[in-house]
Amino acid sequence: MENFLVIFVVLISLVCLFGFFNEKVSKFTHEIALMLFSAVAGIFLLVTVTFTRGTSVGDVLEKANFLNIEGFLVDGVLSFMLFAGACHMKLSDFRKFSRQVSVLAFVCTLLGAAFYGLLFYGAGLLLGLPVSLPVCLMFGSIVAPTDPIAATSILGKFGLPKNISFLIQGESLFNDGVGVALFVCFSGLVTATSSAGFVSVMLQEIFGAVAVGVAVTAVCFLMYRYTKNAALGIFVSLMNVSLAYVICEWLGFSGAIASVVCGILFSTLRSRCCAQDIPEKAQLFDSFWETIDMLLNSLLYVMLGLTFVHILQMEHVILVSLVAIVINLIARFGSLSVSSLMIGKIPDGYNKLNFIKLLTWGGLRGGLSVALALSTKGMVPENIYYVILGGTYAIVFFTTVIQGMTMRPVYQRISRSVLKKNQT
What we know:
Elements: H1 2-26, H2 30-53, H3 57-63, H4 69-86, H5 91-96, H6 98-127, H7 133-143, H8 148-153, H9 162-190, H10 198-226, H11 230-251, H12 255-273, H13 279-306, H14 317-339, H15 352-361, H16 367-374, H17 382-423
Helix pairs in contact: 1-2, 1-13, 2-13, 2-17, 4-12, 4-13, 4-16, 6-7, 6-9, 6-14, 7-9, 9-10, 10-11, 10-12, 11-12, 11-13, 14-15, 14-17, 15-17, 16-17
């Protein structure tokens, strides 16, 4: 408990200091600023300790590995972050764009993992990296899913058209389960253990999670609907998402998908059954989940920034990072290009090329990719583990900071093209 409190004090202090500096001086997007400044602070501390104490970078990194992102995210707050992102989306919207979201979440993620794995395998042969094709495909499954946290917290602030924004968020909320199913299959090949096929794993991950999410929400929402205590309504929503997540993890289903289902159903049922609810209850619910969402997002981005220094443990760090980033963009563009053949009508007047460009640059990666990369420790040799971890960090940092910071001008340029085309 003492270590937990110390770590929390450090993290929340950095959130406040960097957040205040950004508000008054740099004025970046909040999450981007936290990750960028934390990465700079982490590298500065690493360099300072290395030179003042005369120890190697590797020794310092080994002793400084106190932030457990995998535990914090997967075994901790992921369910609440996904619920908070999904609880403002309605089931009717998903019915309207079910085809588009399904193609993006399933087909595009599958193709993205395959394209990335094949391209990285080819690059590994050219660079002399001892990586096998199953390892590269597992790497592809780690970085293929877009991040729902980044999509809702960063992209949601750039004024994207409502329907396009919904497609980006819908894809990122549902492709986690597909990415995890692919990761389970490919990691089974890497470790030479028997693994069920992708279809059976995906069916178990997704349909089992949907069933649990619906059943738990149906019971918990009855308590929420009929209580007049606004605080108790908040407690019920917390119980709803955490209980569904725990049950899914115990049964081998996707807790992430269950959390999204709980959030969407809760939002839909609130709009239909609680329209005449007391204003204080509805206001408290919305304020609570918005605050929780921002707090957990802020802590996660600071953790990602501080642990970014682990990329320095990767051999040929600059070259491999650049290769990982470039291949990620190519694989994302290629998977979207093929998926666009099946996606049907694109909303808001976008043609397929503009849509592909926007979603390629808007495909941010985040904490879940890092957590999956961390879980490969012991599956592969240590040098390959650091290639996967370092490459994942490079992709997460580039997509969050560079793509996130330039998303507004990219969107504005594409929207001018769309407007010009619609006027002719």
